Amino acid sequence: xxxxxxxxxxxxxxxxxxxxxxxxxxxxxxxxxxxxxxxxxxxxxxxxxxxxxxxxxxxxxxxxxxxxxxxxxxxxxxxxxxxxxxxxxxxxxxxxxxxxxxxxxxxxxxxxxxxxxxxxxxxxxxxxxxxxxxxxxxxxxxxxxxxxxxxxxxxxxxxxxxxxxxxxxxxxxxxxxxxxxxxxxxxxxxxxxxxxxxxxxxxxxxxxxxxxxxxxxxxxxxxxxxxxxxxxxxxxxxxxxxxxxxxxxxxxxxxx
Amino acid sequence: xxxxxxxxxxxxxxxxxxxxxxxxxxxxxxxxxxxxxxxxxxxxxxxxxxxxxxxxxxxxxxxxxxxxxxxxxxxxxxxxxxxxxxxxxxxxxxxxxxxxxxxxxxxxxxxxxxxxxxxxxxxxxxxxxxxxxxxxxxxxxxxxxxxxxxxxxxxxxxxxxxxxxxxxxxxxxxxxxx
Lengths: 256, 178
Ligand SMILES: [Zn+2]
Hints:
Chain A is an alpha+beta fold. Chain A is 46% helix and 20% strand.
């Protein structure tokens, strides 16, 4: 190991995060190199100082109270099965305006209707549908990792046949499907999983021309929409936008 | 459904609210404003609660912090237009900022308030790994999960972030003690 390699590892070494092989190699270098040893001591001292001096901000009692109350209100709202408001609970952030602009960006390429008001309600529906689905017992009506089980389940329940793909090899295993509502249509909702998170893909008949893929991010949620084979697809999840884009790209590839 | 709701709520509160301090601390450091931080945590709590039925993992803190982090980043992107790109910085071949320049002794004399100001000046990507590791005590692997970046990126970001912190601190110290 030379000094350049050594420098890159000193923080991880101080943190006790080096793997055994590199740990041993680095210690051998430090025994032989006074420059790196001095640097290592400075980094260890820096680490301790950072740990001891940076404040940790605890949540206030007021915030705890607010959260407790909002969870109770949310639970009561969900029990009534009402559509979930979106966005929620911002006192000061102007998300209403933001939601509208995101929605326009998302839907501008679609021929779902040229009126912004209609587009807004559509994206809100998709986000709300995603969140509703994440509540216990709402995620799937048919639970299976096998697309040959999920696809036939929709037959007879819909006047179209949603393509069901298997993306488990890419880290997006199929979880199942259910019926949902979007844009006044009964839609197929295909449910996939990414690590601990769920991805909902809403599928319903398209009116009008094929559009280029569109994406949007909204306060922790992302959406990817596209149209193919006379069907609209809208994927929604809380996973990072780049991953959802990858997911949507692969989904498209396997249905085209 | 009616009967299950209170159970669901209290299960959620039992599993997630112990991590509320961690959530607020991360949010406070990322957004640098107590009111924005509270709003973000409250929003993240509701999102986590709605997504809770889909939570199957063992690590509730990492899951919750991921949601908090995503909400905070949305706010940063939309509001303050902070640069979220750490272009070229991830490259392990680059040299960390003068890690060896300050000796061990001078670090022990650094004042906490200056350190706080210095950290607030760093781009959020660096701030978050330092906060998650040095304040919250998360391991590199846990940070990789929360920030959804590779382990090697956690390592280089943390080393580079501390180097940047040191550089900011030096410039702050110069300004305050002429
Ligand atoms: Zn050396």
